[in-house]
Amino acid sequence: MASSDSPEQVPARASSPRRTFAMTIVAQDPSVGNAQGMLRATVPVPADRLEPGPRSHRFQVIDYDATARILLPPARLTAGNWQSGDWGWVEPDPFCNRSDAALLSDPAFHAQNMYAIAARTLAVFESTIGRRLNWGFLGHELYLVPHAMAEANAYYADDVRAILFGYMPDRPRRGTRAGSRALRIARSERLDPDAVYTCLSHDVIAHETTHAVLDGLRPRFLMPGLPDQPAFHEGLADIVALLSVFSMSEVVQSLLGQADLEGRIAERTVTDQELKRNALFTLAEQVGSALKDERGSALRDSIRLRPSIRWASDPQYREPHSRGEILVWIILESLAGIWRQRLADITVGGSVSLARAAEEGATAAQHLLGMCVRAIDYLPPVEFEFPDFLAALLVSDAEIVPDDKHGYRDTVRGAFARWGIQGADDHIADLSLSALTPVYRNLSYTALRSDTDEVFRFIWENLELLQIDPRFYIHVEHVRPTVRVGPDGIVVAETVAEYIQFLEGTPAGLSRAIGLRVPEEVPSGTRVRVLGGGTIVFDQFGRAKYHHRKDIRDIRRQQQRLSYLVRNGLSGDDSLGVSDGMPAGQRFAILHQADADPRETW
Ligand SMILES: [Zn+2]
Predict the structure, then answer these.
(1) Block mean pLDDT (10 aa), the chain, length 602
(2) In angstroms, rounded to a whole number, what is the distance separating the alpha carbons of residues 317 and 96?
(3) What is the whole-number distance in angstroms between the Cα of residue 225 and the centre of ligand 1?
(4) What count of other Cβ atoms lies within 10 Å of the Cβ of residue 90?
(5) How remote is the CA of residue 583 from the centroid of ligand 1, in Å?
(6) Which of 593, 100, 31, 103 is nearest to 290 (CA)?
(7) Around Cβ 442, how many Cβ atoms within 10 Å?
(8) Bridge partners of 498?
(9) Ligand 1 centroid vs 586 CA: distance in angstroms?
């Protein structure tokens, strides 16, 4: 409209737009606190235009309760004056000084808490990987549903583009059904402060957001695969949840204990044993207590596992969460080791400075989290196995931190070795060491940074170097340029391209084609699909550096996968290896359901 164009109506813009909003959140969950009450934190959240919900360009909170069939109005967190150049965010936020009970019963606070932690989790991935990350579904916004159902569950459902968070009405009383009580909670627009809400658990929110982010980065990890693949989804989600708490130094300090007048704590409170007992090392305290009916028990306490090199055949590690806990143990054990080392360096006369102790923990946690996240780009797009993760961790970290002064890589390698997992060098081929020279004739370096056809041409010209068998269908699915910044300011620009190969046929057909023995119980008319593929990393000049490959002709792996799918009933009606037989979007719902064994949740 003409009138709004007049000069006096154009507001003055701030010289530099603000990068973050400070938001109040529950630091761990409502059960973790001290004498002052629930532990809170004020954390920076990426600044964005926040419409009611809140709704940003990546997330939208929708407060619909399917149990009670109630839709609560969207929370309005800003004044909504977008023209002012600061998105209308006012600090401190209105929740900053309110009582615990007021926060726990206010749906607007629940919405802010969930939004803030989900947005921070996405930001950890984007800043570490160095590019925008797309969701695994078509569309830009992920729905966050804070009170989706009266159920001890929370899960990412890709088909509805949402993370659904359940809540547990305060212990169902004798004679009342959980459902009827849920209804009363939702009808008044004030929530029951005594219920357990998964949307108030930092760890549950960070865990579920990680599932969604990883689905965007490696969409084929949700396809029927080897058991390590769903376990990686769960393990990484726990690792991100646990390590991201360390970025809140006030939280780390308060969980480490009370300092004396000089701001110091006794060394005996930060021994290896004490650190591992700390809430910093355990997951989802309140939800765990509610499910296990025992105060102070976390949902998962992976650091207590006993390493064994026979885990692969141990039934204890068959279920994805339990299997994923192996990775969590490895990273937490590495964290404890590095942290202890750093604490030893600053211990004087039997005590350490509380602030320094927290800072050292945060530095180690941040570095390890960065290593884990950066490694994802170096993973193959299909057929994931644990040694792939170790190999990707070591190679990607060496790119960004060439001199590993603090010994992170050795520590991580050592922790994997306790489970007998070796990152064999043959997992990721360093193409600069190959006897064959890559062929770049008629290739455009610029196009190699973004064009799937150009990358396919590179593959086509270099089949021998890459050891790719062209008899099988080849499809380059993604080409993604990235710019990573290492802890010492080293900038590494790369392009990551992923291709897959697959072959489909009847059991007899596959036996003839590649000598694969499909398990006998599979009917002869079944459509069986086997997969392979790889990730090629190009440097800033378009030269191919690394190739992480899962060969489609690896018969040992293919047979293991098919037997695993058959044994666990993960097949479609007349197919094997194509779908896992679960209804769309229900994979995590079923996986995350709280049943007899509370360890098998989220
Ligand atoms: Zn999960």
Answers:
(1) 43 67 94 88 95 96 92 87 72 92 95 98 95 94 96 91 91 49 58 91 96 97 93 96 91 92 93 88 80 71 91 90 95 95 93 95 95 96 96 94 93 97 80 90 89 97 96 95 86 95 93 92 93 96 94 94 91 83 64 46 52
(2) 43
(3) 17
(4) 11
(5) 17
(6) 31
(7) 7
(8) 478, 535
(9) 12
> Distance between CA atoms of 509 and 121, rounded to whole angstroms?
46
User: Measuring CA to CA, how many Å separate 518 from each of 210, 308, 312, 510, 560?
Assistant: 34, 30, 21, 8, 10
Å from CA of 144 to ligand 1 middle: 15
DSSP annotation of 84 reads G
How far apart are the CA of 215 and the centre of ligand 1, in A? 12
Contact (CB, 8 A) for 417 and 333? no
- The pTM assigned to this predicted structure is 0.92
Query: Which tokens sit at 525?
Result: 């008319």
* CA of 588 relative to ligand 1 center, distance in Å: 7
Q: Looking at residue 174, what is its pLDDT? A: 45
In one-letter notation, the amino acid at residue 134 is: N
CB 461 within 8 A of CB 489: no
> What's the gap in Å between 528 CA and the centre of ligand 1?
28
Measured in angstroms, how far is the CA atom of residue 78 from the centroid of ligand 1?
32
Instruction: Report the greatest alpha carbon distance in the chain.
Output: 80
